[in-house]
Please model this.
Amino acid sequence: MSGNNAGTGAPAVFSVRNLWKVFGPKADRVPGSELAALSPEELREQTGCTVAVRDVSFDVRQGEVFVVMGLSGSGKSTLVRCLTRLIEPTSGTIAIDGEDVCGMDKGALRDLRRHRAAMVFQHFGLLPHRSVLDNVAYGLEIQGVGKAERRAKAAEMVEKVGLAGLEDRRPGQLSGGQQQRVGLARALAADPEVLLFDEPFSALDPLIRRDMQEEVVRLHRDEGRTMVFITHDLSEALRLGDRIALMRGGRVVQCGTPEEIVGSPADDYVRDFVRDVPREQVLTVRRAMRPAAADESETGESLDPTTTVAEAIETVARTGTPARVIEGGRCVGVVDHRSLLGVVAGLDAGPAGERTAA
Amino acid sequence: MTVHTASPQMKTAPPGRDASAPHPAVLALRALWARPAARKLLILAAAAAVLVPVAAATHGSGTWPSAFTVDLTKPLTGASDWIIDNRDSHWAFLYFFGHVSGAIIGAVHAVYTVLLALGWAGVTAAAALLAWRVAGARVAVIALASFAACGLLGMWVPTMRTLALMIVAVAVSVAVGALLGLAAGLSDRTFRALRPVLDTMQALPAFAYLLPVVLVFGIGVAPAVLATVVYAAPPMARLTALGLRSTDRGVLEAVESLGATGRQRLLTARLPLARRELLLGVNQTIMMALSMAVIASVIGADGLGDRVYQALSTVDVGSALAAGIPIVLLAIVLDRTTAGAASPSPRRLWAGVPQAGGTPGRRLGEGGHNQRRARTRRTTAWLAALAAVATAALATGDKPWPDTWTVAIAAPVNDAKDWMVDHLYTGLPGIGGTADLAAHYTTWVLDPLRDGLQALPWWGALLLVAALAWLIGTWRTALTAVLSLAAIGVLGRWELSMDTLSQVVAAVAVTLVLGFAIAVPAARSPRVERLLRPVLDVFQTMPQFVYLIPVVALFGVGRAPAAAAAIVYALPAVVRIASEGLRRVNPGAMESARSLGATGGQQLRQVQFPLARPQLLLAVNQAVVLVLSVVIIGGLVGGGALGYEVVFGLAQGDLATGLTAGVAIACLGLMLDRVTQPTKGARDGA
Model:
């Protein structure tokens, strides 16, 4: 659903390799040793350590929304904090635009946090004694930007997140959704290269959550900023993510597009996880189509390969005839009642290799 | 202790029927062992069984054996003499203590001069304006009336002297306390090191702080200020540390994620977020400082306390009251002003209900501008008003307070007191008189208790203290308590301490009975609570010293009035803590008890008391600490025992006697605090 301006060939902004975070005494002996093979309970018993992030590697590409998703305790929040070393990783490497984050000294790290990666928090983290405007301007204040300039910039951001007119309120006078808009504006004010979201909407009511998600989609469409988004909400992940990394017990169990996650779950855990997802709204006709018979490639409605199955069902139901999937002016396949229903029913489930090559 | 050990022994195990089953006695022991309280007592009993016969055989079972005492009189007198001889020549005094003392005296004098220069009108107006600025119009009116009353009572000059001393002492206390608190707030290690020290300092009676400073600085304003600082700085340090440490983790993380440096984090987030605790710390420091500044009159702080002290020593209740009322008024003004500064903080707004509606209104933005402009205008108005009042004050002449404007209340009060002596002291039908009551309390309660405690074998007292402290706390608190008690014996103040202890125990018992009797209805009925609150507020702000005045009027001098003052002083705190504890019991638990059909009494016994146990224990602890502090001061009105030793030592220049008594007081305070200290965390909020 989100903008598809994240080309697969785009350069990586964050590049994470073999990242470990172990809490507890002498944590650094765990990664790479035989202790790493132990189950969490055994490890805790033997060493008193808890593994939050376990040998995780991924790339966040320029301009994409990368969602890290998992249940509570899966290590996702720890993972995102490791990216700017709010939590010090135990081992592994993190690079931002090819620059080693783990090797940064205090000054460089501060610079990274000030200018390149800004974070939005679940519980907002606003300063209760400051007005909305001063909260938004806070990041700039820390950077040493002059008062007039930072206030002008902050006013612009407040406007952008739709809070114009509330500049002089205190955070305590705002609703949860409004507070999170302030948090978002504060993160945007520094004009960072990457926005990091740590379950930003979990504390909000469902309707407001929906609003905020659309706000994020809109922001991403307008600015194309790279985003790393942590959530435990699958529908949020599917709605926002260009790619999703699904975490369990500190490990990434599957990393791929929403369609890959829903269409080709890597294991039973993921399959169980996505079971209740309305498949027709995530999967596209690319997955449902079958090769066109001789007479079918010339007639019938034409659909884009990114059309969802739900939309295709509507078309097919309206016309009563199979629809063609056209890519680059060429018919790559057709979808009919049978194939579309097969996707909805989950009868198509099979290894990724069976799908038609894009 | 007999009670405690008896109950487990009476427990009999069911007779074992199976031959292979362990012996019933073994079973009973095992069951006992499973209960921590019984386990502790068993260990203690075992230790006692070994040690007591040895101790009793070698050192008898009377009071503290003389073999274990160390006579410190000679070295202490020597030290005191040496200090007096070398005060004008030794480098430590010339280059350090001399400068400290000089700076303090200079500062107090400077403040006093400024206050006098402002004149009565200037000071009153400045106080009222300040109160208005930080706490609103109501407090301003109170301030205005209070300062006028001080003048009317003919106490303007002593009030200014006390105020000058207070201002300097508070400034130093806040600075020292804030620095210590900052260190403890930012470093875990400092916090761990500082916390027990601060805890202990808050449990010690004010009198214990007087002697050491007198030893070094002699009698005068400088030691009075220093004793005040030592007494008043801990709450500031404590609350600063608490405020800094309780900063919202999420906010701190957000601030860090924006790339703030450590200094930025402190200045823009941690300190502003701790604003309420900091102001509360200032408030408590001011109240402690006032209380100490008045007591410090016995080491040479002149002002209101001195007037009360002089008047009490001749049982001139009228004059004591004339000086006591300004103390109370000063306390109320200072408390309301500083508490007012702390309460309408933005935090009240933060907690407020979120404003509905996301539709932005344009008016608010303009409102901000107007607010700013209005604020500037108001500040200008304040400055103009202040300047006008000051010039008016200067124009009124150099008299501190017009002589003709005073009301002499001493004579009528003394007349009233004489009437009371004639009519209330004795022979009232049915209830007897106040003097009768005092005599009965002394002969039937205090004397037997004191004799009993003094007749208690020394090892018995140690064992009793160990058992009590261990049952309520940990082995650490028990050890501290036992060592403190032993230290008293070593210092050779055993008998006197048992006398003081008897007064404390009796007064605490009365306080607790009365306190819980008031707390239960206060917790159950909002109306009683509403009626009680203003009374408790006023009583809790008054310095300990003031309580001596009415009890002397009512009961004369002796141990009974000291006990009465102690009870009245400790009662408000006990009522407040206990009723709050009872009221805050989880409403879910109360509701479920009600839904099961529990009667009011059952709810109280089975739900409220058990759930509020930590708070009730805290109330006991506070009762003990507060009663002790006043019982000691009671030495000024014939309470005798340790308090009198201190006063005597000061009056006679016999610092060795006073100092050992002071240390014994500190040890007694430490012991009593540890014996009643429930858990480590329970005192955090205080």
In short: Residues 206-223 of chain A form the longest helix (18 residues). Confidence is low (pLDDT under 50) at residues 1-7, 350-358 of chain A.
